[in-house]
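Quick one:
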Amino acid sequence: MFNLIISYDPESWDSSPHELDRSRVAIEYTADEISERYKFFSESAIEELKSFPTLFVTENESVESKIGYVKNIRLRQNSVVFDFEFDHALPSLPVGAIEALRVDIDLGSWELSRTHWAIKDEPLFEILLRKGYVTQQQLNASKWGSNQEPSFDPPVIPTPPGVFNTSQVFIVHGHDDIAKLEMSAFVSSLGLQPIILHQQASSGRTIIEKIEHYSNVGFGVVLYTPCDIGSKVGDLTGNYRARQNVVFEHGFLIGKLGRARVSAVVKGSVETPNDISGVVYVSMDHAGEWKQQLLVELRGAGYQV
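Output:
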């Protein structure tokens, strides 16, 4: 997930703060599901927007684009005012780079000619790395680098054999940030602590060691979202699939916690593993009925919610 802010004035990003008409923020060139989450600027929405990397662009790329982040969002009657900073560990993007990334970053047909603030559900840094606009070393040195320790590290709660920690829930996810944020907010609303792996400090651990370290919980939620496409060799069409790490961590949690303590939440039309019998699959519907289904599963696992 990232913010894309485009301004008509080539000098817009020379100094902070910046102001945009409220009708052009989190509405234009933004998927309806994302717009509904952010256009009302709730306190949680503002905090999430501030946590996303941001591309600062001018109309038709009249100057180089910058990578940074938004802070101190203030609402006025008809506008949104915000401060911003660039991440100086990351290079500017040359003129033409945003146009070249059109398909990758979900850029609309006339979007570069419109002053607005859009929110895109795309893995910005994976794209920039793949296209060669940033290096891994530059990313590591940035605000979002793998060598930057997160600001909080949840306690690992030890339990004796056969006893489960019912104050935390482990969340496995792919590239769908909206699904991840919705699940995290739901778990928090129940008075429980969501454990999201990429937010936790590595402290020299490998990925599998991080999973082992932080998964001492009483329940796991696995988000199956359409992030990849896969098919049998020779097939001309493919099916949407979850990321490989999601399937792996799903199996790991089943092995560690047991099937009754793991629920897979499926968003959209996604292929699911067919060799795991008795697995609970919950549809992440727009009406939010999945929340009630998860409540039943959590209570069945001993959570007081």
